[in-house]
Amino acid sequence: MKIAFVHIDPSYEVMGPFHLGIASLIAYLRQSGYECHFFHLLGDVDERDYIDFLENADPDVVGFSVMTNVFPHVARLAPLTKRHSRALTVCGGIHPTLSPEQTIAIKGIDAICIGEGEEALFDLCQRLGEGKDISNIPNLWVKRGGKVHRNPLRPLIEDLDCLPFIDREVFPYENSFDLAFMRRGVFMASRGCPFNCAYCCSPAMKRLYGGNRYLRFRSVENLLEEVEMTARNFPQMEYAVFHDDLLPLKKQWFEDFTRQYRRRINLPFEMNCHPNLMDEEVARMAKEAGCSLVRFGLESGSEHIRRKVLDRHVSTSRIIEAFALCDEMGIETLSYNMIGLPFETRPQMLDTVKLNARVRPKVMHVSIFYPYPGTKSYEMCRREGFLTDRQIDTYYEDTVLMQKDASPQQLKAIRRRFEFFVRLYSRCYRLPRFLAKIAEKLVDLGILAATSQRLLKALNWLTRRRAKRQRDDAGPCYTIEEGEVKVFGGQ
Ligand code: B12
């Protein structure tokens, strides 16, 4: 029985990030002797390469791991997979889990996995190998005989220590963006998050499992054994990144982890943290253990937007304190920020810019809000009529919403100049308080004027006119389109 996993990463050209979910599935299947293959479709998703991979691997099962941003690509590749292989195709990951009907409806997809895939995929491979009925496997929805068999969810994997360490061979970790380019080890100690932020998928996952204990942590021993083994196997690993939503969530666990990590690993590490969780003790333990960077979800500088739109109940003073604590400890920080949020006005976007100017993170991660299916924010956008059918590969450059408070052009203009605007306000805040206030107001007016719809429209018109004049001045040019010579430009 051969299983081929396919991961699509349109936003990466040469090497893509390591996928912990797929690596966990591969490890789980390989420990039972199943042969696994992996194909990373990067950049423009060249179908020819993919067909060659299918024909060489000749798999029994093809598994796609699907985030919403790559769903359109899977919808294109699924029928192609059926044309060029005899494999059963199955989709898993966050998108099929939160949009199962849309995903099972894809032509060329035989089954989808909702939630955790280790046990479900193992059962599928076993049944296929024994020629048994596959239509009643918990967590799987299976198309059989013109019918969709929607099976119930199985319980979550209670003890994550029972899972084998994720596989770093079949998914070529050595050539991944994380190790080959960033020289970092990626790990996860837990699954789940107790917070209920409206834009995140986590609350929807918790709702899916009802009262089941969704948040689970591995034991410190189990985690550090994996980190030690990875550092041994990949000596080029210079630091570790824990992708957990919130590594310091459980203080006792974190105390145990930090104490042992320093002694046994002694490499810098990075982690995510919620500002409400950062206090002197956590900052000190992290620093002493070698934490070099903490990533905070700042998200919006407007307290109203955070509380009323994002269900993110953290005060501005608490955010400032969390960053300051890291500064005092000499730990660098990264802020996650979003603009183009539902009902967000440009002055509120400037609140996000200003808060970054106050907390001075080393890195600012700025994305344009994307309404992920299954989230409360998605429902809000659907209800308010903000949704459009636009599709984008990455939420760094464009929006899929149409709102009256800020147009896509204005959003892109603010996104493009976000870091520059932060520097402008940082300069203001270095002035004596009285002058700083005046300077801040002047910068507010300047930015709001520079990103006004009228001015952006005028700038757009000028840019288009200049481009046309350059084309005309360049004289006639020729292209060969569908075998025909086309002439354009020139007088
Ligand atoms: C680590 C992580 C990353 C890492 C690594 C990417 C990766 N996927 O591993 C990095 C930093 C690169 C990343 C980037 C992005 N991320 Co991210 N990321 C996460 C995070 C924090 C953990 C995911 C994880 O590893 N979970 C643990 C593993 C074990 O679980 P899993 O991946 O879900 O896999 C299990 C099941 O889903 C299932 N399964 C998964 N695939 C398959 C396939 C088959 C065939 C089967 C049967 C089962 C199956 O079985 C697995 C094992 O149980 C999640 C938040 C979260 N807590 O889940 C966000 C999350 C997945 N990311 C998200 C997003 C949006 C992104 C970006 C698109 C952001 C951007 N625009 O750039 C990029 C996309 C880059 C890309 N590669 O496509 C969203 C996805 C929302 C959505 N509906 O698509 C999430 C859910 C965050 C959120 N809060 O909403 N991310």
Any idea what the CATH architecture of the largest domain is? Alpha-Beta Barrel
**Through-space gap between termini:** 65 Å
Total strands: the figure is 17
Counting helices, strands and paired strands, the structural category is alpha/beta
Do you know the CATH topology of the largest domain? TIM Barrel
Strand order of the largest sheet: 2-1-3-4-5-6-7
| General form | globular
Top-tier CATH class of the largest domain = Alpha Beta
What's the CATH H-level homologous superfamily of the largest domain? Aldolase class I
Gyration radius, to the nearest Å? 25 Å
Residue share in β-strands: 15-25%
Helix percent reads 40-55%
- Write out the distinct hetero groups bound to the structure: cobalamin
Stretches where pLDDT falls below 50 for ≥5 residues? none
Number of helices: 19
Main sheet makeup = 7 strands, mixed
How many individual domains?
3
Mean residue pLDDT: 93
